[in-house]
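Reopening this one. Same input as before:
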Amino acid sequence: MVINKISTLIAGSAFAQFISFAAAPILTRLYSPEDFGTLSILSGWVGVLAVLVTGKYSEAIVLQKKESDAVNLFALSVIITVIFFSLTGLFLYLYSEQIRALHDLKKIYDWYCILILLVLVNGLQQAASGWVNRGEKYNTITACKVIQVLAISTTAIVMPIVGFGGGLIWGELAGALLACVYIYYEITPDLKSLGGNVSMGRMKELSMRHVVFPTINLLHSLSDVFQVTGVVFLISINYGDRVLGCYALAMKVMRAPISMITSSVAQVLYVRLINDFNSGRDMRVLLNKFMIIVGVGVLPVYTALMLFGAPLFEYLFGSQWRDAGVYVQLLSPWVGLSVISSVMSFLPLIVGEQKKFFIISLIGNSIPIIVFLLLPYIDFEILASLRLLGCVMVIHASLSVVWLYRLSNRKYMEA
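Same output, byte for byte:
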């Protein structure tokens, strides 16, 4: 049963990634590295705001035993999303001149309407995803991924052909909107039947019970996205948009197995390990099986990227993207280990070690910022900076994997 659910998610994720990679050689010939750099900046800021948009209460939905509590947390997540969307839009409007003066934001301010729409849709999707994960509706999750990637790729390819600019950014909006419409169409019957259970009083009670989500969990997620956004900002300033575009494509390719394999496995594994932990069963029995599955899928991919990244990128994406392949060769050992650690990243939440995990992650997220903040000022070229970053992050990722795996030995009474 568990394997069937994993197979459903992996098959859907694999198909979505196939669409994305099939479109990539076309997109890299329609758009320049600078265009991808602009998209990377926009995506970075959407990522920062998306972490805040539901107060992380959407992650608590899956933990609820009662449907009435789950639907109240869903409603709370949607309300916070709408309020945050409104305040963000008002802020961007009132302080438009000051925002335009910032190096990183002036490039994307003309897209601020799309920025806040993406934040709104992202928040609504987070709430809906919490609901479908709780109900183990993995066919819905799979279809949502495919719809989103298909809309992104189609829009980004068609727009420059018919003479419109900004296709990469419009594609992100089209994909997010269509996926959001689909997932809400699927869950509307559930919400209608349970709508009578929603009350402000219960939402307030649940918000206080799960206060760890908008505090520790939120800070943890913010440190993750600030690392990504900070690196984008620093590369853009110190090395230029062309290097940023190559770096963005390199990271997109390297992170594809994370979204295809790890997220699919984790969605099933998370629910199962919660049950094992609460029942006093050894979590390692199930975790070891999943780790073998992920290891078999990940090791060949990252070994190939480490050995043949540069010629592979030149062949697939064009000669102007060879540098991105070189970046992949330098960073793939680190990202490969990150895939392994991400499979176990929810263990601290299960056993109550969020604070320690936050500190470990904060250290790891600070390293790239320090590298790209300091090394350019002592004349380190981008390749030298990436080489040093890759080595240091391999050490950190290895230690994180060991610590996370040890948590799987915890029993319910020890937490």
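So the earlier flakiness isn't reproducible anymore. For the record, The chain has a mean pLDDT of 84.
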